[in-house]
Write a structure and sequence with these properties.
Layout lengths: L11 E4 L4 H16 L3 H14 L3 E3 L2 E2 L2 E4 L6 E11 L9 E10 L3 H16 L1 H9 L3 H16 L1
Parallel strand pairs: 1-5, 3-6, 4-6
Antiparallel strand pairs: 2-3, 5-6
Helix pairs in contact: 1-2
Length: 153
């Protein structure tokens, strides 16, 4: 997929959630199911990072992220929410797109480069509109992988 992080097709989903805690739990479950990680450990790390300050990026997007022991490279998961959810974002807006990132525990610059790439992609208003209009997970994955592969080239 990308030189910066892996995003597998099964890691891209549409979900219903009614709170920030449910979003983080669903994200941890997705990482666990797709990448073979421990759900509780992922949730603990993501929640711990969230306590430092909201990862609500603004513009209705959140980028929850954390470093995890045992990972060989950064991995990502993407969720489109069925309806907007309050996320304590800097701009006060609820979120409807969630792009999660987990990196190896010692991945300093690698983690930051992956976050920057995700941030650039999510700042593009046309991309955001396309993600919101996509009919399902396969179309979402197609949109994301096209941009990630293009930017990696």
């Amino acid at each position: 997929m990308s030189g910066l992080f892996a995003l597998l097709p099964d890691a891209v989903i549409t979900v219903a959630a009614d709170s920030k805690n449910v979003i983080l739990d669903r994200l941890a479950a997705q990482f666990a199911a797709v990448y073979g990680l421990d759900h509780k450990a992922v949730l603990a790390r993501v929640a711990e990072r969230e306590e430092l300050g909201s990862t609500g990026f603004g513009r209705r997007i959140a980028i929850p992220h954390a470093r995890m022991p045992g990972l060989g490279r950064p991995v990502a998961a993407f969720m489109r929410l069925e309806s907007p959810v309050e996320f304590d974002s800097a701009d006060g807006m609820p979120v409807d797109l969630v792009f999660g990132l987990l990196s190896p525990e010692g991945a300093g610059a690698t983690h930051l480069h992956a976050l920057a790439a995700i941030s650039r992609m999510m700042r593009d208003e046309r991309m955001r509109e396309a993600l919101m209009a996509a009919p399902g997970p396969e179309a979402l994955y197609g949109l994301l992988s096209n941009v990630i592969d293009r930017d990696a080239a």
